[in-house]
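Sample 3 of the quickstart, ligand S-adenosyl-L-homocysteine:
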Amino acid sequence: MITQVRAKKHLGQHFLKDLSIARRIAESLELTVPTDVLEIGPGMGVLTQYLLKDPNARLTAVEIDHESVDYLREYYPELHLVEGDFLRMRLEDLYGGPFCVIGNFPYNISSQIFFRVLDYKDRIPCVVGMLQKEVAERLAEPPGSKTYGILSVLLQAYYDIDYLFTVDETVFAPPPKVKSAVIRMRRNGRVSLDCDERLFVRVVKTAFNQRRKQLRNSLRPLIGKCDVADGNEENKILDDRPERLSVEDFVRLTQFVSKHLVTSEQ
Ligand code: SAH
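Result:
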């Protein structure tokens, strides 16, 4: 009989102790109809217990840690549990239709989790996640803020993001070094962007690679020295810096870049 899982640092294990916070996170999904739900990293099941009680949640949990899996099988035998790595799973094998994602995420891979969500954005209508406060802020920030970055733009293109609440490090065992926060993302109405979406991702990544530089410099690998017509309205956006651009601006910028791609890029 296992009484506790030994926290493993390399798996980002910080177990939430505060049950009222766990319940609040689980309730933040606000399910009103029966919905498939995927929990990433249930650990010892602190969120899981509330999700199992939600009559609208058809829950599956994916956990990489064998010791946690043994623990969960013992205490939550009714849970549909998959042992494995969320980042490597073929999610289409789990669900035929849409599913929501929830978790107190392992912070060491939280960005990778969000890139994965983007891969499945048309199947994932809602995400509720706890992550490092600073990353949560970045994802939810509008353009113009210092921390606005690649994931803010890519996620905000397809999701409306709410910063729900901050969580203190003292409510975890062992406590993480940083504060945490819970965010909720809901898929917005955008079916597709009005530009080449793969190029959009490259433009956003290339621009933020050198976030202090004007776009005319940082985008040189894509468009070369394309600033001949200075003062031209269409070119004006190149004077800007990436952190000031909204999703719509990046769409316009991508349209511009696609017209001026240097030959080796085409
Ligand atoms: N939800 C629990 C545990 C959070 S700690 C709680 O709130 O207390 C993060 C959990 O994610 C750990 O249980 C860890 O083993 C698991 N995990 C880490 N990497 C993972 C991965 N790639 N796929 C699935 N689970 C993972």
